[in-house]
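Lab meeting, action items carried over

1. Structure of the two-component assembly. Owner: GW. Status: complete.
Input record:
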Amino acid sequence: VTGPAVADVLRRVLAERRAEIADIDARLLPQVDRIIGFVLGGGKRLRPQFLWWGWRAAGGPARGHRAEAALRAAASLELIQASALVHDDIIDNSETRRGEPSMHVDLGVSAAILLGDMALVWADDMFHAAAADLEAGAEAAGAWAGMRTEVMAGQLLDLHVSQYPDAEPLAQAEDARRVNRFKTAAYTVERPLHLGAALAQADPALISGLRRFGQQVGQAFQLRDDLLGVFGDAEITGKPAGDDLVEGKHTVLLAAARSAIIDPVLLAELDNGIGRAVANGGSPELTERLAAIIAESGAVQFIEAEIAQLMATALAELDGLPLPPDAAAALRDLAGAAAARIH
Amino acid sequence: VTGPAVADVLRRVLAERRAEIADIDARLLPQVDRIIGFVLGGGKRLRPQFLWWGWRAAGGPARGHRAEAALRAAASLELIQASALVHDDIIDNSETRRGEPSMHVDLGVSAAILLGDMALVWADDMFHAAAADLEAGAEAAGAWAGMRTEVMAGQLLDLHVSQYPDAEPLAQAEDARRVNRFKTAAYTVERPLHLGAALAQADPALISGLRRFGQQVGQAFQLRDDLLGVFGDAEITGKPAGDDLVEGKHTVLLAAARSAIIDPVLLAELDNGIGRAVANGGSPELTERLAAIIAESGAVQFIEAEIAQLMATALAELDGLPLPPDAAAALRDLAGAAAARIH
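Predicted assembly:
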């Protein structure tokens, strides 16, 4: 399935929801159009693609009414994503998103909370309508319930470990991995695959195999995100370079750097520098210096090696699953794209 | 159905969700227990009761597996309510709720956003599982979708008319009524009745009749809320007396007072006094003086007359519906309680 196909489904469903809003009060349309535009403006459609290929991997048809329902279920993930990003930007004090002012900067925190809520309930409506059309049953509903609880719990955990960070680098890395797993990895790869396969009534063994593959790929995706958050190009990420440093994110990358740096003076420079960046927004000079400290620690190679290891495990898992050849090839490509963030 | 029966269902379902959170990370339990405690500590269970009696009105059984599923659907409304209150308190800067610090005062805005999100998705999971057990179909799913969109749109509209109030009292009253209808009335009475009847596969005529009854009762409920927001006892409301004034809420009551006051000096005292109360939190002397101005305007009698009129219309509508006698009696009692807020 292609990004434009996902966008077409979203455009059609959101036009119906927009008409409901217009019936309630047309003065709401400028704000509601902001969240609709945000959803339609999304780029990679990575999560819908993983759901789609989980569906195809389990023998779901590529055309016809059932395929259209699966595509609607896939597209609903973009609304979950939009809700999570809008609320997350409030929580993280992120001022930009996709190179533009984030929703709460533009419309205020109150409207951003409500527009995030609206995207969240529309996601549910869209998914459940598709699942009902497919007579999908308890497995798909359970995956949907589990996914959203994991995302919220992962966000809460992120908040908790940011407020009460463990000073010990290994424990800090463990916490960062756990946040990654629940906050991002689960709803990016593992659960979309689970949902797609469950909607196609896959057998439990195939679902388990796809989920194991998805766990590895999801972790690789998030480790790539850690690298982009410090060294990334604003053109690719839509966020200023070094944004993770300015937000004081407790990433696996940072924990790896702190663990690798032996010189206490350098470690203090890193920790104090991040404290200053968080406090005052961080000058380009400061974030460049901090990025250099992290790079020189060897943490980048460490993370790249971990990504490579995760991908090798994931692809070996994939090879062991009884998949149609086109689904196997598509999942291999998608996994590579997720870990490299090339699109 | 009784409040304790609703609480039992919530306790059982939320214990399962709590176990999922414990599996993700036990450090989250203190925060998650706050939202669970908030849901379990709710009092009136008015919304679940309207859903239940919509179900019974349409011939749904009082006992057995189907009744248990209807009760779960009813109880899920308490999670919608919890989510709306937690997010609303952030938006309104409300410091207290049920006589205690509101969630964001206690845990911070970020955690309160996420806990409200969690309640919202758990509501969906709970409702959809119950609807699936009842094989309820599109009518119930449509009512659920419509209800949540109305709540969010009503909150957005409240925000909009607070930021850009119409200076003209009649237009202001019209806006306040529209906010009431979507933000509160719909998910308090009309949609719960709709949901209960749809879950019991009611015919369209009965659903329409119950919804018309519910619209009137819901408006009466919200007008009573307006009166309690200015003249209410903190023991009953869980909020300080005059809280609506301090929050600068644009209520129908206030619009009625502004419309009734002819003396421009008195009107200026009211408007400027509310401005001061919003700016500095409002001394008891100030809110008492403002309440006295509103009372002396005759607006209270105007609102009481409107409540009486709404209730007369609602009960006439109810009398015209072909309902089982116990359901008719229960709906009559519930409507009276909603309009009087006696429990």
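2. GW to write a short summary for the group page. Key points so far: Residues 73 and 127 of chain B are 5 Å apart (CA to CA). The radius of gyration of chain B is 20 Å.
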